Amino acid sequence: MSLKLGVPSKGRLMEKSFAWFEKHGITLTRTGSDREYAGHVDGVDGVSLVLLSAGEIPRELAAGRIHLGITGTDLVHEKLPRWEQQVEEIAPLGFGQADLIIAVPACWVDVDTLDDLDAASSAFRERHGHRLRIATKYHRLVREFLTDAGVADFALVDSQGATEGTVKNETAEAIADITSTGETLRANHLKILGDGVILKSQATLWRSRTAVYEPPEKQSLDAILDRLE
Amino acid sequence: MRNRAETLELAARLRGHFERAGAAPVETPILQPAETLLDLYGENIRGRAYVTSDALRGEQMLRPDFTVPVVQKHMEHGAEPARYTYAGEVFRRQEHDSDRANEYVQVGYEVFDRENPAAADAEVFALISQALEGYQLRAATGDIGVLMAAVQGLRTTERRKAALMRHIWRPRRFRALLDRFGGRAKTPPTRAALLATSDPMATDVPFVGKRSNAEIADRIEALRADAAAEPISDNELAGLETLLSVRETMPFALEHLRDVAVDLPQITVALDRLEARIDALQARGVDVGSLDFEASYGRTSMEYYDGFVFGFYAERRPDLPPIATGGRYDALTRRLGNGAEIPAVGGVLRPDLMLEIKEAAA
Predict the structure, then answer these.
(1) Which residue of A69, A221, B75, B207 has the fewest C-beta atoms within 10 A of its own C-beta?
(2) CA distance B176 to B166
(3) The CATH number of domain A3-96+202-228, selected from 1.10.1520.10, 3.40.190.10, 3.40.50.620, 3.30.565.60
(4) Residue from the list B163, B208, B223 with its beta carbon closest to the beta carbon of A107
């Protein structure tokens, strides 16, 4: 057995994760062809690299199939109920920053806060006979945030991509999605509610609390943690 | 998990207890159309119930309680008055506490009767109380109807009253609205800026979405009207404050609330109902002198109740949810009745928890 380290398998997240480890004297490399998801770890013994979709890393950590994993705070909080009991945050990595926010059309000049959104939802439901729809893929986080804030008469509709476009297409009245620069929101004539930031997320290194740590894995883990200090 | 056979046996005995009191046994499907429940409870229900679907019938929910389907059944073709009992599994998603059961048996008793609501309240409470004799539970009661009457009679705009009524089950939101309508909370800067603009709709932002310009203009007008309205008086606010803090044994609570009615006379009719209920409970042999009444009881988790509410708790097991709960839900029959309505009250027991307490005591 070896200590399994899960890293996002694609694009900038993978490159930046590799660079972050490099800074700490641990070299991660992909092996084989460009399309093959295999890798290699130099600098600590007994660690194997597992390349995975960032969205699957929370689940794999919770199941204990990987010991360490890099993924966003947003995905861990959304996918793992009571995440503190399943994973431990080891280090924020300082990249992949994004906020999970609630945005409404910029033309809603009367809506700037959650309080306004609640009042608008009530009137909207009366007028249109259905609840005000919010498009998102973060169902649990958004539902709990809005319920906690006392917003009623909303409905969440699932949107796995191009969420900002749902308002113009009239399949939703508002959205809850990840944004880093706000560029896409502005381009789609949306604005963020003043108190509508649900979560500030960034790429983070997590440790699974459920994985099995035999002496060799424990040793490798300690070696990695030493490097990070 | 409790021994299932034992739980079912106790459930059957409890149902027998309700049948002897005149209830007809009733069955409901486990799969319920999700739309009705979503309409009633909002998006929130998705966090508490299991949702599944098929291509033909769309979204279905695993029955999170019996009350809604029993009310629907009665409103469709029930004769009056009616008494029903049922026993069966309900399913509740648990996302915060894995120790709480996500599937358990409920036994219930529901009364649909126009004649004498106070007597029906007392009947349900007394029957459930009898079933729980010997379990050493603490009973708590309340009455959402008193708070509702207080809000509906406030000397303020209809729009404000509607907003307060809409959030009566969300205490924090209710409080925030009350502070604003009472002039105690500062106007948020964004709102102040909006109201200070002579033509806020004159922007170069392109219009998108289904919420129309007319709706935005309507809300701005409503906000202007609200800003011009007098704040709710300190006298009324203080009355509401006192009302919400009442927490005493039933007869003293009534006395205390009668004092509140000097400032909030609109609650008098609701208090007469409370008094009639106390008499009816006494007539059923309930020791009302030691029965707790909390004016804010049932404001969080019991969204369809709009009058009498109650719960039974194992004091030595604060980790357990209530062993029994119930209350009056006249408004629910109105919402599910397509124009028809009937006063209704009911309650449910948890036989699995009863066995757990008994076992621990033995």
Answers:
(1) B207
(2) 13
(3) 3.40.190.10
(4) B208
